Amino acid sequence: FAFARVQGDVCLVQLVGQTDTGTSGTPLLDIPIFRHEFVSIFRYSHCARVHPAEVRVLESLDNHAVRYEEDSGTVFLAKDLMALLKRIMDASATLKAGRGRQAPGRRSG
Fold first, then answer.
1. pTM value?
2. How far apart are CA 63 and CA 71, in angstroms?
3. Is 81 within 8 Å of 66 (Cβ atoms)?
4. Which of 59, 62, 85, 96 has its CA 20 to 30 A from that of 79?
5. Which residues have CB under 8 Å from 99's CB, separation 6+?
6. What CA dihedral angle connects 78, 36, 67 and 60, to 10 degrees?
7. CA dist list (Å): 32 to 2, 97, 102
8. Which has the closest alpha carbon to 12: 59, 64, 67?
9. Going by DSSP bridges, is the β-strand pair 66-69/41-50 parallel, antiparallel, or unpaired?
């Protein structure tokens, strides 16, 4: 498992390494995405088929800090990983807010 930026959003993903070649001949990754449900609980949401350039692993997670119940699609993360996710999300929000500002000296329409 890892925290990753997939198509611009920070997500919990399962790194399983499945690839497929699209009709264009470009390799595509099939990445299981898990949505945050409650405190440190995540549940399988969907599998995203993305180009490798659309995925950036931010932090690989230690298997000892992750419990995955495959039959229910539920992932439980240790408390320290939730603190790490909060820092990642805060940094991501700061970056997005910075991109929304206009360059100095520019005026809107």
1. 0.78
2. 18
3. yes
4. 96
5. none
6. -70
7. 11, 28, 35
8. 59
9. unpaired
Token reading at 73: 């699609």
Q: Name the token pair of 29.
A: 């990754």
- Look at residues 21, 20, 19, 1 and name the one whose alpha carbon lies nearest to residue 11: 1
Amino acid found at 17: G
DSSP state of 109: -
Facing residues of 75 across strands? Answer: 42, 68
3-state helix, strand, coil in the chain (%, to 5): 25, 45, 30
Residues making up the chain, counted from first to last: 109
Please write the tens of the pLDDT for every residue from 66-99: 999 999 999 999 999 999 999 988 888 887 777 6
